Amino acid sequence: MRSLKRIGERIANELLMHFRAQKKLQGEVSLSESIDTDKDGNSLMLMDIVGVEDTMLEDLQEKEDCLKLRKLVKTCLTEQEAYIIRERYGLDGAAPKIQRDIAKACGISRSYISRIEKRALQKLQQALEGSAD
User: Which of 72, 84, 81 lies closest to 126, judged by CA?
Assistant: First the structure.
């Protein structure tokens, strides 16, 4: 009877160790693990379908360009021009607005907003060209 109890304890212990080991591996996924087969019967691995392009350098350049643009908006434009550019292009994280909505908020005509925006964009372009040298 005692030996049966001991065998039962050993089995329970082995099962417990097995489940603990499985729990440790739960969050791990291998890219070379076969997940399916293609129409020709070839093994399809996770790395075959996870095609992530390395865009870190481009992302950093884009972020740097955005920071430079925000700085130029603050330093090169009048308050009114900066406000219109921020609103038109959503530079403050809000959705971009149309000229008519900005005109209404400023209490001026849409055509005047258009002229201010055009002038501000020219200033920014000149500042960007000047900073590229």
Answer: 72
**Reported pTM:** 0.55
Collapse the DSSP code of 34 into the 3-class scheme (helix H, G, I; strand E, B; otherwise coil) and give the result: strand
| C-alpha triplet 111, 116, 117: angle, nearest 5° | 95
CA torsion, points 13, 17, 22, 24, in degrees to nearest 10? 140
Q: Which domains does the chain have, with CATH numbers?
A: 78-132 (1.10.10.10)
Nearest to 81 by CA among 27, 32, 121, 23: 121
Nearest to 66 by CA among 93, 39, 84, 103: 93
What mean pLDDT do residues 110-114 have? 95
